[in-house]
Structure formats: C-alpha cells, structure tokens
Amino acid sequence: MSAHEVTTDWATIQRVILPSQDQPDTVSLYVDAGTASGIRLRENDELARTPKLPEQKLQMFSSGSREAHFEDLLTRHSMRVRSGEQISFGTYFNAFPASYWRRWTDVRDVRLVVSTSGTGTVTVYKSNARGSVQRVDGKHVDGTATSVFDLTLQPFGDGGWYWFDLAASTGELLLENGEWQAGSSRVSKGQVTLQITTMNKPDFCLNNARILAENPTVLENVKEILIVDQGTHKVEAEDGYAAVKDSLGGKLRVINQANLGGSGGFARGMYESVENGSDYVLLLDDDIVVEPESIVRLLTFADHCRKPTIVGGHMFDLYNRSVLHTFGEVVDPFRIVPALPHADMETRHDFSIANLRQTAWLHRRVDVDYNGWWMCLIPTEVIREIGLSLPLFIKWDDAEYGLRAREAGFATVSLPGAAVWHVSWIDKDDLVGWQAYFHERNRLITTLIHSPYPKGGRVLRESVQADVKHLVSMQYFTEHGRIEALKDLFKGPQELHRVLGTKLPEINALKASYPDAQLKDDVNDFPAPKLGRGPMGGTVVGMPSKKELIPWGIKTVARQLIKAPGPESAERPQGYLAHRDNRWFRVAHYDSVVVSNAEGTGASWYQRDPKKLKSMLTEATRLHLQLFREWDKLARQYRDAVAEISSLESWKKTFEANSEDKS
Prior knowledge:
alpha+beta; 8-stranded antiparallel beta sheet; 18 helices; single chain; 31% helix
C-alpha cells in the first residue's frame, strides 16, 4: 500500500527532520543512537532531580547512548541505519510531544507513517509523565515498505511523548520519510506574517532569510516576511540583500523606523499582521539561527488549538547548540520575576550529555505564563482583543503580554520541537548599565498591572535591596538609571509612548559622569594595580547568609559612608576582577577595582564615592517610600490605561512619528 493511499484522510502535523550539513554539533537534537531498553529511566526521578550530576551518576545516567554517524544523514528527511545498529528518533526535534497535543487541541488519535527501504524493524515507544519508557508496537520491514501505526493520545494527561526507533538487520536500513498525522478535516490552515525586529544585525537577518528561502515548503502559509529595521546599519544595504529578496518571491518587506526597542519593533509586526489580514504573527529576534521546520510546527499546532492560543518556541544556546536555555517559564506572582514551572526542571540542559530518553523531567508537560519573543506565534484574534505590546522599549514586554493574555482567557504554550539558537543569557549582564533603567521601570509597571498581592508582594523590598547592592558595588551609573526609572513611574502610563524613542539616548548621555560606565577594550588602558593582595588580604569573600544579610548591609553601607577611600584609589585600582567574580558582597570591600564585562569585550574602573552613595541612597529610599504610599493609586492608573496605550490607534501614531521610510 502506498504512502498516498494510507494518508488520504490524514494530514501531516509533524515531519521527521534532520540537521543541515553545516550543523554537526546539533545531531543529538535530531537522532539518538542505541536501544531504549539499554537506558530505561528510573521512575523515582532521583537523577533528574539532581541539578548538578556527580560524574559517576552522569555516566550511569547516559549508559548505552552513543553518537550517531553524521555521514549517515542523507537529506533533511532521510538517513541510513548501518547493519546491526539502532537509531532512535526519541529526541527533541523528532519525538512527538503527545501531552501538549492532548492538553491544548481536540486531536485524540494520531497516525505515524514511516517509509523505509532495507531489512530491519520499526518500533514505536511512548513515555509517561514520570519519564518511564514503554514499548507500544513494532513491525519487521523488508524491501520498500510503509509502516503505519494508529495511536491514541488518551494516556498523556500530565506528560509523555511518542517516538520510534529503527534497527537494521544484516544490511543497511534507510529511512525515506517519517511523519505524524491527524485527521485532515478538522482544521483549515492559517496565514502568518513572519516578523523580525533588528537593530544593527543585518548579517543575522539575511542569514535567516536565506535559510527560509532554502526551505520553500516552510513558506507555504507565510503571507509576508517583515523585517522592522531600527538600526543604522541597514538590512537593505547588506551585500546579498537583493538576491535574498528575489529568492523569497516577493514575500520579503523591510520597514525602516527609529529605534523604538524590541517592544516597538514587535508591536509594529503585530500591527502589520492585523492590517494585512494574517491569522497570526510570528515574532522573531534578529540575533538567532532558526530551525525552519519550527515555523510549520508552531503554525500547525496553533491551527489545531481549541481556542486562540499563543504558541512559542524554545531557545538553544547559539554557541553551544545542544544546550537548551529553559523548557518553559512562569512569573512568580509574589516577586514578579521569571521562574521555573516546577522543581525538577533544570536550566541549560545539554542534550548531548543526556538526551530526551535519558532525562525524566523532560517528559512532564510544562504549562507556562509566557514565551520569550525570540520565537513566539500570536493569533491576530488575540491582538484585536487585548492590544499590542506595551510601549516598554525592552524588558518585560513579552512576560507582561503573556500575563495580559492569560487574564483575558488566552493561554501560552511553549511547544517542544520548535526552537531557535540564540545568544545565551550567561553571555550577557543586562541588570547593569543602561538596561537597568528598563528592568526596574518595566518590572514595576508589570507588578502594578498584574500583581495579586497588596503593594506588589515582595517587589518593593527586593527593589530596595537591589539599590543597596548596586551602590555598595560602586555601580553608580546603574543606580542613576534605576532612580530615573522610579521617577518616571510617577509620570504615569501616558508618558510611555512619548519617551519610547528618546529615553535610551537620555540614559546614555549620563555615562560621561560615571567611571563605572566607561568601557575600555584593553585592561592595559587602566593604571596598573598597586602590588598587594587586595582589600581583604586575598581572602575569598563569600555571600552573607540570610541571617547575616541585614547586619552585613548596614555595616557595609555605614563603612562606605563614613570611611573615605584612600587618595591612591583614584590614581590606581586595587586590583582586577573577572566578571564571574563581580559579586556585590565581594566588590563592596574595594575602594577601586577594574571589572570586566559579561561579554568579555572590555572592562570598567569602579571607584568608590561616599557622596554619590549617600545622595543616591537617600533619593532611592525617598522614592520607594512614595511608591509605597501611592501604590494603589498608581496601580489603578496603569491598569486603566493598558487598553489605550496598547491599542492599534496609539501605536499607529507612534509609528507615524518615528518612520524613516520615505515612501
């Protein structure tokens, strides 16, 4: 029976895919060598609950697993299994996330169709929410064959996946094609606007455009590819732009506008998708590499959801491509900070060390509050009902939108098997420098709008603690930005659109007054430290315990206020600190120190200034007391303004005022 005959009444919802030839370091995300029985999981999740696995446990955890042969990957959908070997598709990109389809769609039965040539076996497995592996079915194949398996989603209430393995007999077994199908009469296909917001990363933008052009089947339901260019190095001026545009068959459009931050760029994508009649907008960061099949998977899943649903993809580390940043995120309502959905979850999980079949917690379904806008599909029906992004420039726009959608009855799903590669957070430190303003202001705005607790729960207390940490760390430019954020909060929500394009230049203009904001490429550009072992005699300083924290803070602040720094500290630093050692409880003991940044591209000279500490601490305390007194009034003010400041009409005025396009 041919593949066409067995799939007449069924439509593909997920295809088996394999990595491109230039990504050998991602093989573990697509295929896994070895038998499932050799690495059957322990059902007590003991190993999965250990955040840092001891070496001997890690070896036991991954026993039986080995690398697949990269040269056996023939095309994007076919591969060779060598004689006597077994290959599993129980992997991130090729296992079927059954529990997500069970929870969010009306699909209750799926069909697996596997086309092979050669002699061997096709075996279907499933897992439960505890991560235990269970054999479902299997077939012996000989010659050219199409194996069909009808499977139910009923047992997947809390978690679990389906996948299949191939085992070759005395000769090679070739996978020609594999796909998961659902009843084709259930849904119609929606059209999506694929939108990228960029700021001086034209090379990344064109690279992703080329990837899309090389995968034309991905573009079948893409209405438009829209690049919102907010930089000075324009995408349209990049070498190769014209060729890429031609290869996309008229689907690529570039909008040039002033720098309105991520929220301004993504809001433009939302706005244009409503205007052009799309069913969805897919928001993408610019500094990513996209797995193109993810676009099809997000769109297919969203089409099948019972009601309009935001569907996002995961983020892998661009520079360590088998490492997943996180499997899903929620917002801690008491603290208004990103948090993991459950205690078993591990951040920065490396699939090359422990793959899907070897990691119990990955089999538990994760329900989230929001998905990062590195890759996030939003139905235009949701946009019409709750509006666009808040005009926050950067930070908290994606989380706030997810919370707003949830309150309106629209869920967010972070869908396994859909992902991009993006620069990891460990290579950034966006809590200091110019970004501190946006973190502070936007976290407080999100708290005012969404916190269910009086006075925002623990947010104000943590904000004060952060002020003290920055000040005793001599991060005066950072603290100036945080104080400006508090002041601007009192100006009300109507100011957000007005300052969207001007606030960043205003903050950057303050850098000249602060040594800690002066970044130099080479540490040799700073005076050499005086010979010595540092302020604590070279002793490694640990973080104070919770019991000691308040007395330590009072003592440290008092010392920094009363004791003047030595005159030599303004002439020569007391030492150098690598970024990983730049911890507030350690830096607080210095009068003068050179500190490298997270990216490793430069360093700054921190110099203690008791006058700045006193004035800034006084001002921050005053503003927090005012915020505490006026909290309820401000909360009502911001909540009442959400509908207006996120509306298409308000954003249209902002776009028109900040357009750089001449046409």
